[in-house]
Amino acid sequence: MINTKKKILFLFSVLLVLSMIVGCSAEKSKNTSVDMAISDSDSHESSEKEESSFKNESSSPLEPEKVITTIDIRFETTEFDRSNDELNKVIEKHQAYVEYSNISYSSRNFQNGEFTIRVPKSSINNFKSDLKTIGNKVWESTNKQDVTKQYTDTESRMKVVEVKEERILALMEKADKVEDIIALENQLNEVIYEKERLKSSLMDLDDKVDFTTINLYIQEVEKLTSSTSPETSFGRKVLDAVDESLYFFKNTLEKLVILLIYLLPFIIILGIIGLLIHKGMVKYKKSKK
Questions:
Q1: What is Dmax (Cα atoms) for the chain?
Q2: CA distances from 171 to 180, 183, 186, 189, 195 (A)
Q3: I want to staple 76 with a disulfide (CB 3.0 to 4.6 A). Which of 136, 228, 243, 247 is the partner?
Q4: Are the C-beta atoms of 107 and 213 separated by less than 8 Å?
Q5: Structural domain range at position 181
Q6: pLDDT for 96-150, tens place per residue?
Q7: First-residue to last-residue Cα distance in the chain
């Protein structure tokens, strides 16, 4: 009987120890799962923060509402008339217009053109892309002027002037004395003048913002400038160097021939003088003998 009790007590002790081990293991597993979940959550949150930060850094700031854009571009061409015709086609295609143009001739009868072109803001990128048909672009510069504050200030002043105009008109309806009416009319004339001036200023700013100004220069040359860039291949650079060398040799030879033609009369005269001096010296020596 005692042995039986001892066996039961022993089994109960074993079960108690096993239950305690299982319980501790489960608690540890639970804590581990919670820690992993928290770690994953923190990692995900950190990843979201990094991604958000990257997006904020990579996104460029928006351009202000009212910006005046001026672009200066210089082209070279070996056929000025053809380039001028192509330019007119591009202008007509994008519904732009020429504000100023001037065509002049250089000493070698080459033509040079200066153009101020107004292009709708929405078409400027396509317009610039189509300009490649007129010649070799050698230089470009873009200038942007933010006039948003100037525009909003002018609008605010315009509203103040309009309110003042309404008040003066209301006072004129109530005025009885002639001198009061005359004084109010003088004030009204000043207000109307200021209103028209501000209105004209707003229209001018709108025009400059809505139409980009392009100052275009076209220069006719005998040979186009080599347009090499860091991306140009070695073979292309070698061919360009050979072409430049041959052109320099040909150009130098032509200049030497032209120089000889210019100097030919002087050479003939000097040759005749030299020949006469030589004959005179020969005769002089013979007469001495």
A1: 176
A2: 9, 11, 13, 14, 19
A3: 136
A4: no
A5: 148-210
A6: 999 999 999 887 789 999 999 999 999 999 999 999 999 999 999 999 999 999 9
A7: 176
The answer for 146, left when phi > 0, alpha when psi is -120 to 50, beta otherwise, is: beta
Mean pLDDT, the chain, integer: 79
- Say if residue 135 is in the same domain as residue 157: no
Number of domains comprising the chain: 2
Other C-beta atoms closer than 10 Å to the C-beta of 215 total: 16
The CA distance from 77 to 84, in Å, is 10
Q: Is residue 74 part of a domain?
A: yes
What is the number of alpha carbons within 13 Å of residue 55 lying toward its C-beta?
6
Q: What is the CATH number of the domain that holds 138?
A: 3.30.70
Q: What is the DSSP letter of 108?
A: T
* Distance separating alpha carbons of residues 211 and 70, to the nearest angstrom: 10
Q: How far is CA 230 from CA 93, 129, 236, 283, in A?
A: 33, 21, 11, 72
> What's the pTM value of the predicted model, to 2 decimals?
0.60
Instruction: Decide if 162 is inside a domain.
Output: yes
